[in-house]
Amino acid sequence: MSVYDRILLHVDKEPDDGCWRFTAYKQSNGYGRVRVGSKYALAHRAMWECLHGPLSDEWDVGHKCHDEAAALGLCDDGDDCPHRACCNPDHLKAEPHDDNLLA
C-alpha cells in the first residue's frame, strides 16, 4: 500500500473547516507521524511529497488552514493547534523553513 493510501486510511474528513485530521499516531506537539520506508515523517509533509515530490531539508510544508485561522484570531498555535494534524492537500503549501516559522 502506498504512503498516500496509508495516510488516507487515517484521516477524518468530517470537520467543518475542511481539514483532513490525521487520526493515527501523533507526536506530543500535535503533528501526525507516518512511516515512509525505513524512516518516519510528518504526515502532512509525506502527503505533500506524495503529490509533488521530495523537498530539501531547507523547506517545510506549512498549513494554509492555520494561517487563515490565525489571521482571524481563531488559532494561536501551540501544541494543541488542530491544524497541525491536517493532511488535506488543498490546505498544504511548501515554503522555506524560516517563512514557516513566521506563520
Can you put this structure into words, describing what you see?
The chain is α+β, with helices and mostly antiparallel strands and 103 residues long. Helix content is 30%, strand content 21%. The chain contains 4 helices and 6 strands. It has helices at 3-9, 43-52, 64-71, 97-102, and strands at residues 11-12, 21-22, 33-36, 39-42, 59-63, 92-96. Strands 1-2 form a two-stranded antiparallel sheet. It has a two-stranded antiparallel ribbon with strand order 3-4. Strands 5-6 form a two-stranded antiparallel ribbon.
Quick take:
By secondary structure, the chain is an alpha+beta fold. It has helices at residues 3-9, 43-52, 64-71, 97-102; strands spanning 11-12, 21-22, 33-36, 39-42, 59-63, 92-96.
Helix vs. strand class: alpha+beta
Which series of helices and strands comes N to C?
A: HEEEEHEHEH
Largest sheet: 2 strands, antiparallel
- What is the terminal-to-terminal distance? 34 Å
Shape from CA axes? Answer: globular
| Widest sheet: strand ordering | 1-2
* Secondary structure tally: strands: 6
Helix content: 25-40%
Low-confidence stretches: none
Q: Mean pLDDT, rounded to whole units?
A: 92
Number of helices: 4
Estimate the strand proportion: 15-25%
Radius of gyration: 13 Å
